[in-house]
Structure formats: structure tokens, C-alpha cells
């Protein structure tokens, strides 16, 4: 069972790759962003505390996220982590040894352009964009729900999320140097996927 971390700027395609890898390798996709958004939509105590932070693009306090991820990783052997760790402190809190850290890289310009066209289904979380448009404009292929823009995909939020990425998350590239696999996130979803599979099975 593989233990993988997906690293890269927001909207680099981590979520899309995690879903494909999860299917291909038979291991769960664990997205801390999804876990946190779920808390917000449930209106839980944690959800109420973090709603504003999520919208602004700042990081949620370590105490909350570390507790959430440790609980989620209980009883899991292999997994794909998407969105965790976000900084070196969080990396130190990971209770399990990791096999590969996959960096999906893309320029800030490309990210800003991509995010302006990204839409998400508020019911099932499926993401649509230029590469994967919905069959019917503005509606989810799976459940017909009207698609929305993520509140933290607004231009001011995405710029801030990129700043947070450069300052806090990028140092993880050096930290995980010996496990790092680099892929070019400008390629198509299928090309990125093929490249990842090639490198993790080499
Ligand atoms: P994502 O879906 O990974 O882009 O995450 C969306 C938002 O959730 C981020 O902008 C943060 O506010 C929060 N978040 C996700 N993962 C973490 C984490 N590991 N540490 C702190 N905040 C996180």
C-alpha cells in the first residue's frame, strides 16, 4: 500500500490527480480542504470557527487540522494526502512514513487563469474547469446541482492563497527532497497522471 503526498499550489490539479490515483491504486484520497469544507457545511462547532478563515485563504490553526487528520488516518495503511501537510510543522506531526511526495507545479499566472474558470458542485464536490467542462453548462453531470465558484477562488482570495503557498508550503519541497517526484502541472490531466504512475512505479 502506497503512502503518497500531493504537493503544489492551489488549483494545480492535486484533487483531480488524487481521484485518479485513488481509483488506480485502490487507496483513499484524503483532502483536508474537503474535510474542512464538510465541517462548514454541516455547521459543526469546528465548522463555525473556521468558516471565515477558509474564505480568506489563510491556514486553519494546526491544532484543529492535526487533530482532524490524525483521526482520519486511524486504521488507514495506504493513502493519498491532498492539502496536508501545508507547512513543515504539520509535516513533523504526520504519524506515518511516506513513500513519495509528488509535486505538481504550475506558475502563478496559470493558476490565476485556471481558477477564474473553475466551478464546483456544492453537493458532490466534483470540480469542473477548462479541461473538464460540464456536459450541460452550469450543472453537475452527476446530480444536476447548479455549479458554484468556491468562495476562496475569488481573485483576492486566490492571490492570498498563492502567497501562503509560497511562504509556508513551498519549503516542504526541500524538506522532502529525497522522496520528491516533480511533474509539470501545465500538462493535461491524463498526461500528468501517466507521468506520476511512471515515476512511482519506476
Ligand atoms: P484546499 O482545498 O486544499 O485548497 O484547502 C482549502 C482551504 O482549507 C485552505 O485555503 C485552508 O484555509 C484550509 N486548509 C486545507 N488544508 C489545510 C491544512 N493542512 N492546514 C491548514 N489549513 C488547511
| Residue share in helix | 40-55%
Structural class: alpha/beta
Report strand %.
5-15%
Low-confidence stretches: none
What does this protein look like?
By secondary structure, the protein is of the alpha/beta class. The chain contains 9 helices and 7 strands. It has helices at residues 14-25, 32-42, 45-56, 62-73, 88-92, 108-116, 155-169, 171-175, 189-200; strands at residues 3-7, 29-31, 79-82, 100-105, 119-120, 127-128, 180-184. The mean pLDDT is 94. Bound molecules: adenosine monophosphate. The site of adenosine monophosphate has 17 residues, from α2 and α3.
What's a concise summary of this model?
The chain is of the alpha/beta class and 202 residues long. It contains nine helices and seven strands, in the order βαβαααβαβαββααβα. The strands form two sheets. The protein has a five-stranded parallel β-sheet with strand order 2-3-1-4-7.
Keywords, please?
5-stranded parallel sheet, binds adenosine monophosphate, 202 residues, two-stranded antiparallel sheet, alpha/beta
List strands and helices in order, with pairings.
Elements lengths: L2 E5 L6 H12 L3 E3 H11 L2 H12 L5 H12 L5 E4 L5 H5 L7 E6 L2 H9 L2 E2 L6 E2 L26 H15 L1 H5 L4 E5 L4 H12 L2
Parallel strand pairs: 1-3, 1-4, 2-3, 4-7
Antiparallel strand pairs: 5-6
The structure holds adenosine monophosphate (AMP).
Adenosine monophosphate binds next to helix 2 and helix 3.
Amino acid at each position: 500500500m502506497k503512502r503518497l503526498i500531493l504537493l503544489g499550489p492551489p488549483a494545480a490539479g492535486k484533487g483531480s490527480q488524487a481521484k485518479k490515483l485513488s481509483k488506480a491504486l485502490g487507496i483513499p484520497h484524503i483532502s483536508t480542504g474537503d474535510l474542512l469544507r464538510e465541517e462548514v457545511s454541516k455547521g459543526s462547532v469546528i465548522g463555525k470557527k473556521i468558516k471565515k478563515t477558509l474564505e480568506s485563504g489563510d491556514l486553519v490553526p494546526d491544532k484543529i487540522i492535526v487533530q482532524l487528520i490524525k483521526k482520519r488516518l486511524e486504521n488507514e495503511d495506504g493513502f493519498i494526502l491532498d492539502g496536508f501537510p501545508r507547512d513543515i510543522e504539520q509535516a513533523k506531526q504526520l504519524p506515518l512514513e511516506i513513500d513519495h511526495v509528488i509535486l505538481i507545479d504550475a506558475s502563478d499566472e496559470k493558476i490565476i487563469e485556471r481558477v477564474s474558470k473553475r466551478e464546483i458542485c456544492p453537493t458532490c464536490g466534483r470540480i469542473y474547469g477548462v479541461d473538464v467542462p460540464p456536459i450541460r453548462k452550469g450543472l453537475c453531470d452527476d446530480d444536476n446541482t447548479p455549479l458554484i465558484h468556491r468562495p476562496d477562488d475569488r481573485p483576492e482570495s486566490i492571490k492570498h492563497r498563492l502567497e501562503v503557498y509560497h511562504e509556508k508550503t513551498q519549503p516542504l519541497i526541500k524538506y522532502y527532497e529525497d522522496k520528491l517526484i516533480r511533474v509539470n502541472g501545465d500538462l493535461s490531466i491524463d498526461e500528468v497522471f501517466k507521468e506520476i504512475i511512471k515515476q512511482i512505479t519506476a
